[in-house]
Write a structure and sequence with these properties.
The protein is about 30% helix and about 30% strand. It has 3 helices and 4 strands; from the N terminus they run H-E-E-H-E-E-H. The chain has a 4-stranded mixed beta sheet with strand order 1-2-3-4.
Length: about 100
Amino acid sequence: MQQQLTALPGVTAAKAEFFQSLDTDPVVRADLTVGSTASVADAATLGDRTVEIIWRSPVRPLTSIAVVVHRQGGGQYLLSRVEQLGDPAVAADLTKAYGPRIVAG
């Protein structure tokens, strides 16, 4: 997953982490860094691709996908997005857009 995110157009660095604890439901958080000239529209496109990559991954269990896109050099966030997979409407929208999740095997 990390390699797929790093290979996305315009991404200069990427980090994907899985979190789960007694206080936190299972979530994958992806943090993408883009060049200083990237636009909000660029970030939205990267957000969609990142959600797709995580959605299609075999990571289980997973209740949330969080994506943050920011410009190189720190500071300004271009996108902060969270998809709550426990919401049937969200899961239906993602299934329609990207197909069903991979069945764990």
